[in-house]
Amino acid sequence: MKSILYLSYDGMTDPLGQSQVLPYIINLTKENYNFHLVSFEKPDRYTENHSLIEKICLENNIQWYPLRYNKKPPFLSTIFDFYKMKKLAKELHIKHGFSLIHCRSYISSLVGLKFKDCMVFLFYLI
Questions:
Q1: Strand order in the sheet with 120-124
Q2: 105: phi > 0 → left, psi -120 to 50 → alpha, else beta; which?
Q3: 3-state class of 60 per DSSP?
């Protein structure tokens, strides 16, 4: 079973995460892929929808690692989020040895570039 790290700066508790990202990953888990999903969640949406997303992930054998999205102060908060994602991705890769990294968004792709020498990764830029 191939282990894949999916990095998303979009939240799974956001409509886009629920309508695009999760269905995509769920279909691939049926093809014997093991996903570890890192996403950034807006606090209000996370509070409202996290139990639904946790249930979906549990039912489909997806390991979900939600991180808190920051928006203040502008620009610096994005740099802070980048470092949080990079740190978690490194820890997860050391533990699970991913064969592929899928990056959704520019911020996630910057994190993925840090792993270019140790694995194959896929860019998905919108």
A1: 62-68, 33-41, 2-8, 100-104, 120-124
A2: left
A3: coil
Is the backbone peptide bond immediately before 73 cis, with ω within 30 degrees of 0? yes
Q: Which residues pair with 39 in a beta bridge?
A: 8, 66
- The angle that helices 43-59 and 22-29 make with each other, rounded to 10 degrees, is 20
Q: Collect all residues with Cβ–Cβ distance below 8 Å to 64 and sequence separation of at least 6.
A: 12, 37, 39, 53, 54, 57
Nearest to 8 by CA among 26, 21, 24, 19: 21
91: tokens are 């820890």
Distance CA 123, CA 126 (A): 10
**Nearest C-alpha neighbor of 100 from the set 1, 3, 22:** 3
Q: What is the pLDDT of residues 61-119, one digit of tens each?
A: 999 999 999 999 989 999 999 999 999 999 999 999 998 999 998 999 999 988 876 55
* Domains recognised in the chain with CATH numbers: 2-124 (3.40.50.620)
